[in-house]
Specification:
By secondary structure, this protein is an alpha/beta fold. It contains eleven helices and eleven strands.
Amino acid sequence: MKNAFILLTSRIIKLVANLLKLLCYPFHALFPGKRFTLPEAAPPLLATRKPTDIPRILWQTNFTGEVTLPVYLNYLFNRLMAPHHEYRFMVTEAREHFIREHYSTDILEHYSWLQIGAAQADFWRLLVLQKYGGVYLDIDAHLVWPMDGIVRPGMQELYITNRRGEISNYFIVSRPDNPHLADLIKAVRDNIDENLIRGVYDLTGPGVFNRILKARDVDTVSYRYACNQGSFTNEHFQYIDKAEGKWTRQQKSVEVVKRPTH
């Protein structure tokens, strides 16, 4: 019964979100230069004393913090669905600063060889969750159920599965110092070092998760009951200020990994 109610809620959210997205086209036609600022940090909307093994931090990243209305609405909706979570956001430069401050020069070096922002974001999300823990959400991802109903007491980690039952990486829940994240970080680092994989998906993204975690005993949840993508926003609104566009286009003309020649 609960799952049926979540599915119904998810469909209603998707319907409303897509309607808002359509309304954003005339808004940005009238105000083409209008952007909204995502905060680098924001406290929880509501305080709570309930204990949890997963730190109540919601992490996101993007190439810019100045975003279109659909992306900002997506952000606001997630804040409402996770009112007990503080918010942390990093742009490209902040990601590198975080890694420089908290990880070895070897990890920083391998990260710096990544030439596509999405690949950098893939690596960073593992590193920031391993350090601090919390919940990572892609900039176009939105919850379909309140966070406190998704992350159960005693849970150490949670990974999302797509329609095919494969693990994706646009929603990750983890405690700090997670051995599974350590394995994923090592796998991404090795992929970058070997540079035999040409696509972002298998080099740093979901392909790594499915190769490393598929035989492990990890908690997973279908996207239908936790988190969806692309309802509030789309590629047009996400990359309106990025001429090279989405990583799927960018990787056709840019090497994902570029090691120094010296």
